[in-house]
Amino acid sequence: MAAAVPRVWREAAERWGYLAEGQAHRYGLRNGATLLAKIASGESGFNQGAVSSAGARGGTQFIASTRQEYIEKYGVDPWKSPDEAMHAAAIFMHTTGLAGYNSGGGQEYIDYILHQPVSIAHQGAQRLPGGKRASARSKPPSSSSSSSSGLGGDLMHIGLVGVLVLGGAAMIGLGATRILGTAG
């Protein structure tokens, strides 16, 4: 029988589970949200205040150096909240995978996580960075681009569109003046 996943953790797992879909399917799990719930269950028992003997912290147990990397690269602080802890774990699943989550843990660690008695039956639509919605089948953002998510990615997109629109308008204006013979 599956144990209950606390509401805030379940919602975060459902929000970010799409990033862990590949790893979930690799290990025979129904969805990425379930894999994320199993990680939080096994790593901390859903305790955002957990601290390991190795210095890993938070509900998904990130060490300080990896935490700093995720803050700088993705704008996600796994020590801040259950949502950010699950987001960081989801990014890790998408970019590195479960086998790399606990260095030195090997197959024993993978089995430990996969046998956690939690499951999320349905992974509905998730909220993507920037407030957009996506289905569980949506393609995850590219793991090679750290600027494609969050507010920074949205602002970059808006800026790029603005440059293209203004540049296009300038080129059209220049072409019209040449056609009309008014360019000096």
Structure description:
With 184 residues, this protein is mostly helical. Helices cover 51% and strands 2% of the residues. It has a two-stranded antiparallel sheet. Strand 1 and strand 2 (133-134) form a beta hairpin. Helix 1 runs parallel beside helix 5 (82-95). The protein is globular, with a radius of gyration of 21 Å. The model is unreliable at 131-166 and 168-172 (pLDDT under 50).
Brief digest:
The chain has 184 residues and is mostly helical.
What's the layout of helices and strands?
Elements: H1 7-16, H2 21-26, H3 32-44, H4 64-74, H5 82-95, H6 106-114, E1 126-127, E2 133-134, H7 150-180
Antiparallel strand pairs: 1-2
Helix pairs in contact: 1-3, 1-5
Task: Give a quick set of tags describing it.
184 residues, mainly alpha, 2 strands, single chain, 7 helices, 2% strand, two-stranded antiparallel ribbon
The neighbouring-strand order within the major sheet is 1-2
Beta-strand level of the residues, as a percent range?
under 5%
Distance between the termini: 80 Å
The rough form would be described as globular
Strands, count: 2
Structural class: mainly alpha
Oligomer: single chain
Query: What's the average pLDDT?
Result: 79
Order of helices and strands: HHHHHHEEH
